[in-house]
Amino acid sequence: MIDIIVTYSFLMNTNPQDLLFKYISGNCTEEELQAVFSWLDASDSNKTELERVRKIWDSAQYAGFNPNVDAAWQKVNTETKSKVIEISSNKSILSVGWISGIAASVALVAFSWFLYIQFSTTTWDVVATTADQRTEYTLPDGSKVWLKESTTLSFNFDDESDRSLKLSGEAFFDVAKMPERPFVISLGGAEIEVVGTSFYAKSIEDQDYQVSVKSGIVAFSDVNNRAKKVILKANEEGILERGSKNMVKRTTANPNTMTWQTGVLVFNKTPMRSVIKDLTNYYNISIRLETDALGNCLITSRFDNQPLIEVLEIIKKLLSVELIQTEEGFTFSGQGC
Predict the structure, then answer these.
(1) DSSP conformation letters of 269-302
(2) N or C: which end of the chain has fewer CB within 10 A?
(3) Is residue 24 part of a domain?
(4) How far apart are the first and last CA of the chain?
């Protein structure tokens, strides 16, 4: 029996990716892991390629995968003919070991063919921000989106029946009204559907999915259980908890959810522990309370695009406490309220 693998050179004339799919999905053997690590160490471009493949994998997960293996195998045989390649041990082409058995090979070929069909016939445009960058972008339909740091937005508006997007990170959307073309955002385990509205959305690994509506109406649902669906109106917020899978609807959204986009912080008898959380999130710096008692103090104030030190000094006076600057950031010290 000859162990075979269809490499990505067949699909896109570049480095093989079948092993990368196994690596991303956690199905590599120890020998295969070593091959991947060696390949990644070879150059930064290989690391970039891995991230690109990971995005393809994640998108395929959203789309679902239930291949007709026999049909895929026949299709691949027809298309590849002599292009079915035996993997060599030459590290320059990514030494990948082997996949034991024809059944495993056929399944992997079917999956590779699925990805090829999925992404060679559909064009997804991508807008991304770095760890120190925020940006505003106008989508092809006229909708505007503000992306927070470390955020990636993919979109495909080719299908005239809807407007499809995928979000990883945090963004604020102002959606152009097109009743005949719903605006649908995949967050991975959750989905948002709107027609014309403005709202904040969050999809960050290991954190709960979140939608906060500023205007209009948004449908927010669990993609794995469509019965878990809430309809959100202005000033309402939906949370899908990753761990428990609970869907929570809050009738009053946190007014500071979109501070990173507006620059405005609003506190109305807000406990200091919550104030600190919002300040840390917006200014991206460590701010601590020396005692738990300080966390119970209530703050009522509004800050409009003010420098951090100015905000901290005002809070210091409101609470009659000390403000200490440290190597990590700032600490409030005092007796509490």
Answers:
(1) EEEHHHHHHHHHHHHTSEEEESSGGGGG-EEEEE
(2) N
(3) yes
(4) 77
